[in-house]
Amino acid sequence: MQLWTEFHRPLLHFVAKRVRNQVDVDDIVQTVFMKIHLHVNDIQDGQKIKQWIYRITRNCIVDYYRKEKSTQPLPDHLLVMDEYEDEDALQELAACIRPMIQQLPAKYREALELTELNGMSQKQLSEHLHLSFSGTKSRVQRGREKLKDLFLACCRIEADRYGNIIDVQAIRNSKCEAGPCGCQ
Predict the structure, then answer these.
(1) 3-state SS of the chain?
(2) Hey, which of 32, 84, 119, 171 would disulfide with 54, CB 3.0 to 4.6 Å?
(3) Considering only CA atoms, which of 42, 66, 64, 62 is closest in space to residue 52?
(4) Residue 19 placed within a domain
């Protein structure tokens, strides 16, 4: 009930800016509150509830446009981050990249540093390393997989259904909880 009181009116305004039909606005907000009710106990960090609610709302708006207007592209304003976007999770994860890459074996570390951090194309990397292009692509891909494994061993990464990162938390008792990643 408290969430309804606090967020109902702001969500109506938020959705109304993005959807013209008032009946659809009401339906979307009702759907948002049904999803909140079903999953509110799943949220672990109460301080991020506002971002979580607005992410649900944004996803419901996107679903509305996909369902109702499947032949029209999504409006540009839905694709742009707004003031409710939570950048903390992405910033925490970005701060982990360099230290995590340093933990990789040398050949994968070099491949990822040059391509992912320094912007070198995989074609340029293949010339630099004197490897075939397909061999270079495989090395970069394996490096990414190893990097992903390191992240998943240290951090619980929560993403929405579109793959957008919404939260990062250290895994308790993991060997790197206090290590280079520092995710909270």
Answers:
(1) CHHHHHHHHHHHHHHHCCCCCHHHHHHHHHHHHHHHHHHHHHCCCHHHHHHHHHHHHHHHHHHHHHHHCCCCCCCHHHHCCCCCCCCHHHHHHHHHHHHHHHCCCHHHHHHHHHHHHCCCCHHHHHHHHCCCHHHHHHHHHHHHHHHHHHHHHHEEEEECCCCCEEEEEECCCCCCCCCCCCCC
(2) 84
(3) 42
(4) yes
| Judgement on whether residues 110 and 166 belong to the same structural domain of the protein | yes
Phi, psi of 124 (to 5 degrees): -65, -40
Residues 6+ apart with CB under 8 A from 28: 15, 19, 57, 60, 61, 64
Do residue 163 and residue 95 come from a single domain? Answer: yes
Q: Is 109 found in the same domain as 148?
A: yes
Q: Which domain holds residue 153?
A: 88-170
pTM: 0.48
pLDDT band with cut points at 50, 70 and 90 for residue 138: very high
Residue 12 located in a structural domain: yes
